[in-house]
Specification:
Layout: H1 4-18, H2 23-38, H3 48-63, H4 70-76, H5 83-96, H6 106-118, H7 135-148, H8 159-171, H9 173-180, H10 184-204, H11 231-252
Helix pairs in contact: 1-2, 1-3, 2-3, 3-5, 6-7, 6-8, 7-8, 8-9, 8-10, 10-11
């Protein structure tokens, strides 16, 4: 069964694409949402949309040069949330998170790893200010991470473990371990969990494409959050997870 929180996160993806928000904005919003819910008891289901759009509102203000206006965030909820409610919820989220608003997200880890992989071989000359990596390989890894972040099982792992495991599936074990500093035993459980999502993406067979956006340079397009995953893809991945779980139970018996 897909949780209500997953539904909120899935709805955030097309909103990010419509307003051309960055990947980091989406991942900040997911982090704020997960941490807020983890620190809050008994959140009614009818408040999840308000909390979700508020977390996206906060993430956009932090990450975007020109974030959408408050009224635009209220508009996308189709009347479910007012501007006043979003502002009140914003203060509640900020207080609950103790104003800790600068996590190293999975997207941040992947950008760091990609810079190391494709940057100068001399580690003393690696620059983290100018991107040195191609957008397509990066987008393939991020498609996998986007899908994984919609399943609550991702909370069992750190953001760096998730990024390293996604890199493992796309670029291979040698690259993933070399750039992350992890050993295989440290990421093996996350890699196995993530295999169900890799299976779902490969089963669909639609290759990732970098979308073009008016007014955005082609070399920057892969940093915008594209709407590349959906509920049907997530349902296939969770079904695969259940199949793997049943097979493991049979083996133990």
């Amino acid at each position: 069964e897909i949780s209500c929180v997953t539904g909120v996160q899935t709805c955030a993806l097309p909103i990010c694409e419509v307003y051309r928000l960055h990947r980091e904005t989406f991942y900040l919003a997911v982090d704020f949402l997960d941490r807020y819910l983890g620190l809050t008891d008994s959140v009614p289901k009818n408040r999840l949309q308000l909390i979700g759009v508020t977390c996206l509102f906060i993430g956009a203000k932090l990450e975007e040069i020109y974030p959408p206006k408050l009224q635009e965030f209220a508009y996308v909820t189709d009347g479910a949330c007012t501007e006043e409610e979003i502002l009140a919820q914003e203060l509640e989220v900020l207080k609950r998170l103790n104003w800790s608003l600068s996590p190293m997200t999975p997207n941040s880890w992947m950008r760091t790893y990609s810079q190391i992989i494709h940057g100068p071989k001399d580690e003393t000359k690696v620059s983290f200010t100018i991107p040195a990596y191609n957008g397509l390989p990066f987008s393939r890894v991020m498609q996998l991470l986007d899908l994984c972040m919609l399943e609550f099982g991702c909370l069992d792992f750190t953001y760096s473990e998730l990024a390293t495991s996604a890199l493992y599936h796309i670029e291979g074990e040698r690259v993933a371990l070399a750039v992350s500093g992890y050993s295989w035993p440290e990421i093996s459980r996350c890699v196995r969990w993530m295999s169900a999502f890799v299976f779902a993406i490969r089963e669909r067979g639609s290759p990732i494409q970098i979308k073009s956006f008016h007014g955005v340079l082609p070399e920057d397009s892969h940093h915008l959050q594209n709407h590349v995953v959906d509920m049907s893809l997530l349902e296939r991945a969770t079904s695969r997870l259940a199949e793997i779980g049943r097979a493991s139970c049979r083996e133990r018996v």
